[in-house]
Structure formats: structure tokens, C-alpha cells
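We were asked to recover a plausible sequence for a given structure. The inputs and outputs are reproduced exactly as logged, with field labels preserved.

PROBLEM: sequence recovery
POSITIONS: 193
GIVEN STRUCTURE:
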């Protein structure tokens, strides 16, 4: 019985096992893996084809500086809300695409980004942003959010249009650098209230 330990199938199985172990055991391995899948076109956000969403319920937040923000006060602006946590690999995987979108649009007065830390730990969230070179504005909840809007699944991303309707809701990681999503946000910004 002449058996080769270095057959093509054994090498492929070894590489597959190494990949699975690296995703499971190496800190940041799952984040890196998800980001690679995003680069090949997976995890594209489901951009709505049209129509209008339901009115957003009142939600209250505190900025990292401790300033109160009520969603109703942001009428006339497009609002991007992302519920995330520093320990959440899918949240961390999508963060570069959200940061890129923010950097592209941050100078527009008609859009607001709220990166809502699910743990309500402003210092830790700000440290995460700083350590990774992100410019995204951190916020925390200052009240309740209905389960139909945010049921605790991380990440969850909402886009509220200028009229105060939730026109986009995505749970799970998504690549917000896609042309289709950026065009969708651009159309919301160009729309009259």
C-alpha cells in the first residue's frame, strides 16, 4: 500500500482546515474573512426599488459629547443609523464601508450618521474608532427603540428619509461601498421632502 500524504486532496483539506481554524481561533480572523467576501461582491445591501417606508418612531440618542439627539429633530435630513458593538465581527467587517460612505458625505448638511454603540460604552467605542482610523460619529441610545426597528441583532442599519420614513433596514453585515447603495443614498439626498 503506497499512499502519498502530499496528494492534492490532502493539501486542499489541510488548507481548508487551516482556514476554518484561523477564522475560529485568530482574533480578527472572522472580520478579515467577511471583508474578503465583501470584496468579491457578497453581502450587498438590499436596496429598495421604490415606494415609501413606515414612519420612524421617535428615537432618542446621546452623542459621544453627551448632546441629546431626537430623531424627530432631524426631519429634513437623511439619517443613517447603525447599531453595532466593538466585539461584533460582522459590525467590524462592515465598518470600513460605512466609514467610506461617511467620509464621502460628511460635509453635506442634509445627512446625519449615528453609529449607536449597543453596549452604551462611549469611551470604548470612541477608542475603537480612533484605533482603526474611522471618523464615524459615535452615539448611544437614550431611550427605547421598538423591536420592529431594532430587535438586538448586530449590526442593524437603518436609513430614514427626509420625511422621517424608514426606507432601508438591513440586519447583518453589508458592504455599503457598493455603487447601488451610494446611488440610493444620493437619490434620497436629492429628493424634496
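RECOVERED SEQUENCE:
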Amino acid at each position: 500500500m503506497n499512499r502519498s500524504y502530499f496528494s492534492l486532496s490532502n493539501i486542499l483539506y489541510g488548507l481548508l482546515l487551516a482556514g476554518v481554524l484561523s477564522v475560529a481561533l485568530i482574533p480578527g480572523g472572522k472580520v478579515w474573512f467577511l471583508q474578503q467576501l465583501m470584496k468579491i461582491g457578497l453581502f450587498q445591501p438590499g436596496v429598495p426599488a421604490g415606494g415609501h417606508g413606515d414612519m420612524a418612531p421617535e428615537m432618542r440618542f446621546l452623542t459621544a459629547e453627551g448632546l441629546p439627539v431626537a430623531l424627530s429633530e432631524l426631519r429634513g435630513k437623511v439619517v443613517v443609523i447603525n447599531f453595532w458593538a466593538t466585539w461584533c465581527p460582522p459590525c467590524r467587517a462592515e465598518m470600513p464601508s460605512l466609514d467610506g460612505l461617511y467620509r464621502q458625505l460628511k460635509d453635506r448638511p442634509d445627512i446625519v450618521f449615528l453609529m449607536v454603540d449597543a453596549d452604551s460604552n462611549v469611551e470604548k467605542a470612541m477608542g475603537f474608532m480612533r484605533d482603526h482610523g474611522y471618523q464615524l460619529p459615535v452615539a448611544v441610545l437614550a431611550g427605547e427603540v421598538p423591536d420592529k426597528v431594532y430587535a438586538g441583532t448586530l449590526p442593524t442599519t437603518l436609513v430614514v428619509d427626509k420625511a422621517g420614513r424608514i426606507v432601508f433596514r438591513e440586519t447583518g453585515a453589508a458592504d455599503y461601498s457598493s455603487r447601488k447603495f451610494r446611488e440610493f443614498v444620493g437619490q434620497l439626498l436629492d429628493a424634496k421632502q
